[in-house]
Amino acid sequence: MKKRIVVLGATGSIGESTMRVVRSLPEQLEIVGLSGGKNADRLIELAREFPRAMLCAGDEASAVRLKEELGNREVFYGAEGLDLLASLPEADLVLIAIVGTAGLRPALLALESGKDLAVASKEILVMAGEQVMAVAERNGRRVLPVDSEHNAIFQCLEGHDLSTVKRLILTCSGGPFRKTTSASELAEITPDQALRHPTWSMGRKISIDSATLFNKGLEMIEAKWLFGIPMEKIDVIIHPQSIVHSMVEFVDGSILAQLGSTDMALPIQYALTYPKRLPGSCAPLDLTTLGRLDFEPPRRDLFPALDLARRAGMAGGTLPAVLNAANEAAVEAFLSGHLSFPGIWEYVKRAMTQVAFIEHPTLEELIEADREARIFVGDRL
Predict the structure, then answer these.
(1) Which residues are CB-contacts of 354 (< 8 A; sequence separation ≥ 6)?
(2) Helix 40-49 crosses helix 60-69 at what angle (to 10 degrees)?
(3) What is the dihedral of CA 229, 234, 239, 244, to 10 degrees?
(4) How far apart are the first and last CA of the chain?
(5) pLDDT score recorded for residue 201
(6) Which domains does the chain have, with CATH numbers?
(7) pLDDT in tens, 91-136
(8) Deepest in the core among 21, 160, 241, 358, taking most CB within 10 A?
(9) Is the pLDDT of residue 200 over 80?
(10) 52 falls in which pLDDT band (50, 70, 90)?
């Protein structure tokens, strides 16, 4: 029996890799819902390829265009459309690859309506990990990680008691500036330079997060909620080849690692087909051609994002939401030329100390903390 999939964010890089996985496993996977933001051209192409899928566009104008192009096929749009797709009765799993906080409500709705959730959007668990995991547990549903690092840890933990875990080790390419040696060099970095990731082809925001190491800091907070491991047991190590996707160290000193090619289709396929392992579109890793695997500690003196994230993750409450939102606003300011590269973490640090902290927030209070952090950064540029 096919597993029926809804993909929110189907036209982005994760969405495109997901489509490749689905095409390679036509007997196992079926697309029943697609959203595409404002990329109407690509959503039209996907809608023709998957004619049974319910569609959601980013806005009304895009929805009207889709209807015209697709013979008046029913198309929803906006937040309401995402909610409809997330709670489709026929869906088994909802994959959320929407950048930002727009995927939070659909994620909760998917779990509440009895679907498993595949998470590619960091903001969902960073902002509201406690709430999301509680809803999943209450409804007996799984939250499956799509990020290569968390997917690797998920695989390494399979069959192991969490009490035997000494620490989780997230690997990190180090971004384009891991060899940088001075704060003055960082101050001169341009957006074009920061967007040149040495390993992965990613969107603009996540590429900047990789350069600042905020991407890895957000992943630390995600790991806390996904695996129920305290922040003090979650570490980051630089691994520039990006072949070892992450590791788990156990109390007896053993370390299990998951290795694979730098292809997002691999963790996506594992999440979509779990608990099965199936042949798919990913090329196998040829160990004889690797040559070497390097590991080194991150430069926390020059890149404070990891320490800021650890602080936010340990405090909990609204602080991770503030960190995430302030970072988003600061990255946008950097990309538009209104903020220096080091200014990103300076503004995040300031927002974390200035925006009011709530220890046990409601969902509405988390959303308000997110809003206040964005305003805080915007008002000071």
Answers:
(1) 376
(2) 40
(3) -20
(4) 54
(5) 63
(6) 3-145 (3.40.50.720), 150-179+207-299 (no CATH)
(7) 999 999 997 778 999 999 999 999 999 999 888 999 999 999 999 9
(8) 21
(9) no
(10) very high
